[in-house]
Amino acid sequence: MSVVIVTGAGSGFGALAARALADSGHTVYASMRAVDGRNAERAQAVRDHAEKEGVDLRVVELDVLSQESADAAIATVVRESGRLDVVVHNAGHLVVGPTEAFTPEEISAVYDTNVLGTQRVNRAALPVLRAQGSGLVLWVGSTSSRGGTPPYLAPYFAAKAAMDSLAVSYAAELARFGIETSIVVPGAFTSGTNHFASAGHPADEDTVAAYEARYGGLMEQVGTRLAALAPADADVADVAREIVRVVNLPAGRRPFRTHVDPANDGSEEVSVVADRIRTEFYQRLGLEDLLHPAGT
Q: Is 43 left (phi over 0), alpha (psi -120 to 50) or beta?
């Protein structure tokens, strides 16, 4: 069984994945910030699950906005468990509203959480994985990177696309260290998470009002229509189950990319082409060994 850290495990996909991985037999560190503050109840819920189910599920403080916090969290994992096998990049923040209404600083903050946060965690965790010569970096992406992109979600979509690009480049750069990459790509789940409920909004209310005059109620319409596209039995826990499936596969057998998209927004179809072109281009460059982790 593996030692796993999941970022952003206080709620949503992260909370579900941390519990499901622990239930599957792994030692799991559910990381979140402010475990003794505003997330104290969520941290206690993790501990309660571990006690009730008799699984090895632990809480660790990790604020992806801080390199010091990321370093300390990984150090805690290694000190307690002696190793680290899997990093699940899940932490993220959603914002909604007309793109023009977001200040550059507000968009930068979205990138800080969704993109730079993964880099801070990688800089803390990858030295451990490289020294071991093995490991898995699993990125929780978004179908918005290549599929349908409804309006009023641009800062989030742009950040997830940037994160996806990082993941693709990292895959090749880590392969010769024996470190594997998988990207699990959820679609739009309009229930079962608090993504939309806790979403941020632009501070420029005058610009929001100008758009509301022409696009009145657009965000609500998008949410309603996304929900209508998904089958009635769409279950957000399917994302956690897919993460467990990928982690449980033998090294070298894990998919580079896998989708969980009940609304079928087209991302999977586009990704098949993009990932095929990546494979063919690496082969043309004579770098096909970078398509799979060394030793597998």
A: alpha
**Distance in angstroms (rounded) separating the CA atoms of residues 62 and 214:** 42
Which residue is listed with tokens 């622990």? 22
Give the Cα separation of 152 and 164 in Å (integer): 20
pLDDT digits (tens, 9 = 90+) for 32-55: 999 999 999 999 999 999 999 999
Q: Does residue 192 carry a pLDDT above 70? A: no
Contact 53, 14 (CB under 8 A): no
282 belongs to the catalytic site:
no
Residue 114 has what pLDDT?
96
Rounded to an integer, the average pLDDT of 198-215 is 92
Among the options 29, 156, 170, 211, which is catalytic?
156
Residue found under tokens 């392969």: 175
Beta-carbon contacts of residue 204 (< 8 Å; ≥ 6 apart): 100, 101, 102, 103
Q: Calculate the alpha carbon distances from 276 to 120, 256, 262, 280, 288 in Å.
A: 29, 11, 23, 6, 12
Tokens 């927004």 belong to residue: 265
